[in-house]
Every structure is written in structure tokens, then in C-alpha cells.
Amino acid sequence: MLSPAWATGLFVLACLAGTRFRNVWKNEGPRWQLWLTGVTAGVCLLVVALVPLAA
After folding, report:
1. Burial code of 23-32, b = ≥16 C-beta within 10 A, e = fewer?
2. Predicted TM-score (pTM) of this structure
């Protein structure tokens, strides 16, 4: 169970990682940064989507 604060934090982290992913991709940066930021954003969004919130 996720508390609303943790869910919000994970969502903000996913947004920041997604923005960084887009910037690295657009500027053709290093592949390891693409993987790191993409996986971070994806995992955060999956956790927020699949783990129930605490009431």
C-alpha cells in the first residue's frame, strides 16, 4: 500500500525522469542515460499504477 505522499513523490520523480529522457534523446546523448532515465520513469509509473493507495 502506498501513501498518497509516496505516490505523489513517485509521480513527480517519473515526470522529472521522463523530461530528462526526452532531453537526452533529443540531444542524442549517451545511451546509458537514456536507459537509466527511461527505466526510472517506467518503474515509477508502474508502481503508481499497480500498487493500491492507502486510505
Report:
1. ebeeeeeeee
2. 0.90
